[in-house]
Structure formats: structure tokens, C-alpha cells
Design goal:
Elements lengths: L2 H22 L7 H10 L31 H17 L3 H20 L8 H15 L3 H79 L12 H26 L6 H13 L6 H38 L5 E2 L5 E6 L10 E10 L4 E4 L7 E4 L5 H7 L7 E6 L20 E11 L5
Antiparallel strand pairs: 1-2, 2-6, 3-4, 3-5, 3-7, 6-7
Length: about 425
């Protein structure tokens, strides 16, 4: 054997020794190539024989495995690393196969180079280093995984915090909305109370003013002591007559459909005596003119409506069989002629039902058990003419035009102006007059 071959074998034997030890302590499921690469990676490449001894750093071969089968600390570390890498081996099969092919090619090259037995282990070292990096998780990757896990945990905590804050904010907004509604309700109640208080103050002020006015008006009212004198009684009677006229005017306007404020009316009468008017002369004149216009319009409207009703009633009444017109102008229908002739000087008891053409009953003497009893010649001309058409116990219906009844003025408030009247007259009894 040549010297170069001997040197090559001397260099290779220390490397093969760990492989034999690994083979004896082979781990199940772990390829031998990987076990050999891990151990070989821990060694430095052997320099050529020509390198001075001081510069060579030849590491001693790994000690063989002990008989008990226990692994050294580095072997246990290797085992753990390889177990973790097994999950990634499936993805690196092609890479390993390629590396194995490279190893086979290198071995083939070594066998062919008999003349030059030097073997360059740097290529194999680089190859196994790449293999280890491909199969194992580097510290940088482990640190990156740790950072990612920490970031995910922090992100989860942040999301939980945001959720809690959002929930708390929603609760605060609900409380704020509730408080805002309470404030709105309180403000509304305050406004209502303020409005009622203001209204109460206005009522009190008006009452105080009315009290002052009433105290001043008390002087205008007569007492029993004042009415003892003749002058006071005469003045009081004139006031009563004036009051009746005012009351009649009020009833007249009400009959025409014009509303009258009695309080304002009496206030105007009182102020006319005191001379303290609540309206200036210009306002009084305008109000009076407006009142007259309203009254004239309402009166004309009421008279037209009444005239239409009257005409329709008279037209229908005249078409009734047996209806006749008297010489004075009223229409009549004899319901019952009677039984005995009435003497010229007889006292006649009659009952009368007075009504308007629209059916409104003004008076009904029979319903009220009332009788008018007087000589025939004492009755108004209208009733004298009607009674002379009957016998004792007879009855007659009269339709009397306004000219023969209440005329243009009427008899307010019951009887409007220009009212056509309907009378149902019945003779209760006709008696001979007593000669005195």
C-alpha cells in the first residue's frame, strides 16, 4: 500500500468509528445517514499531513456507546431534534434523495481516484449542514414562532379588551339616553307647571280686577233702604223698563241666530253709567256698526227662511179639501162644526193651541188645563170671526198671516218676525150670559 493510501485510511478511520457506534446504538425510525451526518457535523475536517501540528485541530473520535445503551447529552439532544424533524422529513424526501445521490457520486469518485487518495470533506460537511438546516428548526425560527404566538395572544387580549370597552360604552350610552329622556320629561313637566302657574297668575289678576270693578259697581245697585223714597222707586221702575227692553233686544238677536255675550252686555250698560269705557270711542263706533250689520244680515236671513216655510205650509194647507178663506184673510178648516147654536150674548169657554208653521208649539191650553172664558164680543176680532163659524163644542183650525198675528216685530224670543201662526181652537162650553 502506498503512503498516500495509508494517509487516507488513517484519516478516514476516526470518522468511521462513530458510524459504527451509531450503528450499534441505532435509533428506530431514524435513517443511518442522518445519524452519521449529525455526528460527523460535530467534527472538524482533518488536514493533510503536511500541515504543521500546531495549526491542526483534529477532534478526537466520539466515544463508543456504553453497554447500558444510554445516550450522552449530545446524543439525547440529537434524538430530540431528529424526532421533531421527522414530521418535516416527509417534505424533504426529494432533497435527501438528491443528497444521497451526491454522496454516492462522491464515494464513486473516491474509488476512482486511487492515485490521489486525498478526500475533501468540506463538500460533505456543507452538504450535511444544509441537510440539518433543512430538517431542523433553527433558533431563529423557534424565536420567530414564539414571537408569533405572543403576538397572537396579545391580539386576542386586545380583541377581548376592545369587546369589553364596546360593551361598557354601549351600557354608558344606554344610561345616557335614559338620563336624557328623564331630563326631557322633567323639562316637559316644568313647562307644564310653568304654563299652569302663568295661567293661575292671569286668573288671579283678572279676578282682582273684577273685584275692584264690582266694588265700584256696588254703588250703582239699590238697596231696600234706598227704595223707600218715591224718587228711588220711580227711578228703579225706569231701570226695570230699560232692562226689559235690553232683555227683549237680546232675545230678538238670539232668535235671529246672533250670539250675545250677556256679561259683556251688562258690562257695557254699567260702564255707560260710570263713564269708564273699556274701548276708545273709535273702537266703540266700529263695534256698534259691525253689530248692526250682523243683526241686519241675520234678520233678513231668518225672515226669508221663515217666509219660505210659511208659504210652503199655507200652500199645502189650502190644498186640503174643505179649507176656506175668511173675509179678513185667514185660512180655516172646520174640524167639527158643533152641536148647538150659540146665542149672541153667550159666554164662551175656549181652549187654544198656538204653534208655528214648522210645528213649534208656543202654547197649548188644553195640555195645561187652562180655559179662556168671556163673552163672544170681548174676544179679538180674529177669534170672534172664527167662533161665529162654529156651534157649541165645535173646533176649527186657523192659518193666520203675519198681518193678522204678531206682524213684522213678532213676539221674541218664541215668535219670530213675520211669522204665520197656526191656531187650533175648540169651544169647551157656551153658556148664556147672566143678566145683571
Amino acid at each position: 500500500m502506498k503512503r498516500s493510501q495509508f494517509v487516507w485510511l488513517a484519516t478516514l478511520l476516526p470518522l468511521l468509528f462513530p458510524i459504527v457506534a451509531i450503528a450499534k446504538n441505532e435509533q428506530p425510525g431514524v435513517p443511518m445517514l442522518l445519524q452519521f451526518a449529525e455526528r460527523y457535523q460535530q467534527r472538524e475536517p482533518v488536514q493533510k499531513e503536511k500541515v504543521p501540528p500546531k495549526q491542526q485541530k483534529v477532534r478526537p473520535p466520539s466515544p463508543p456507546a456504553n453497554k447500558s445503551g444510554q445516550q450522552s447529552a449530545k446524543e439525547r439532544e440529537l434524538t430530540l431534534g431528529l424526532q421533531k424533524a421527522q414530521r418535516q422529513l416527509l417534505q424533504q424526501q426529494q432533497v435527501i434523495a438528491g443528497l444521497q445521490q451526491q454522496v454516492e457520486q462522491l464515494n464513486k469518485v473516491k474509488q476512482e481516484k486511487v492515485a490521489n487518495p486525498e478526500f475533501d470533506f468540506s463538500t460533505v460537511s456543507v452538504m450535511f449542514s444544509k441537510l440539518r438546516q433543512a430538517m431542523a428548526i433553527t433558533p431563529n425560527e423557534q424565536h420567530a414562532k414564539t414571537l408569533v404566538a405572543q403576538a397572537q395572544q396579545k391580539n386576542l387580549q386586545t380583541e377581548q379588551t376592545v369587546t369589553q370597552i364596546a360593551k361598557q360604552r354601549a351600557q354608558e350610552q344606554a344610561e345616557l339616553a335614559k338620563m336624557s329622556q328623564q331630563v326631557t320629561d322633567a323639562d316637559k313637566r316644568y313647562q307644564q307647571v310653568s304654563a299652569k302657574l302663568h295661567e293661575k297668575e292671569q286668573i288671579e289678576a283678572r279676578l282682582e280686577s273684577e273685584v275692584v270693578q264690582l266694588r265700584g259697581r256696588d254703588k250703582l245697585f239699590a238697596t231696600s233702604e234706598i227704595l223707600k223714597s218715591a224718587t228711588a222707586r220711580q227711578s228703579y221702575a225706569a231701570g226695570v223698563a230699560l232692562g226689559k227692553d235690553i232683555n227683549k233686544m237680546e232675545q230678538e238677536r238670539s232668535g235671529w241666530g246672533v250670539d250675545v255675550d250677556r256679561q259683556a252686555l251688562f258690562s257695557g250698560v254699567t260702564d255707560a253709567f260710570t263713564g269708564q269705557y273699556k274701548l276708545v270711542p273709535k273702537e266703540l263706533d266700529k263695534a256698534f256698526s259691525d253689530s248692526e250689520n250682523v243683526i241686519a244680515t241675520a234678520r233678513e236671513k231668518a225672515m226669508k227662511s221663515a217666509q219660505k216655510t210659511n208659504d210652503e205650509f199655507v200652500s199645502n194647507f189650502k190644498q186640503k179639501k174643505g179649507v176656506q178663506q175668511s173675509s179678513s184673510g185667514f185660512w180655516y178648516y172646520i174640524d167639527y162644526i158643533g152641536d148647538e147654536e150659540i146665542k149672541g150674548n153667550a159666554v164662551i169657554d175656549i181652549m187654544v193651541k198656538e204653534s208655528l208653521t214648522d210645528g213649534t208649539v208656543i202654547n197649548d191650553m188644553e195640555s195645561n188645563n187652562k180655559v179662556v172664558s168671556q163673552p163672544l164680543n170681548d174676544y179679538p176680532a180674529l177669534f170672534q170671526e172664527a167662533l161665529r163659524l162654529l156651534k157649541n163644542h165645535g173646533s176649527i183650525t186657523l192659518v193666520v198671516p203675519p198681518s193678522l198675528a204678531y206682524g213684522e216685530q213678532g213676539n221674541l224670543p218664541e215668535i219670530p218676525p213675520n211669522a204665520t201662526m197656526v191656531y187650533e181652537v175648540r169651544i169647551a162650553e157656551a153658556k148664556d150670559a147672566v143678566v145683571k
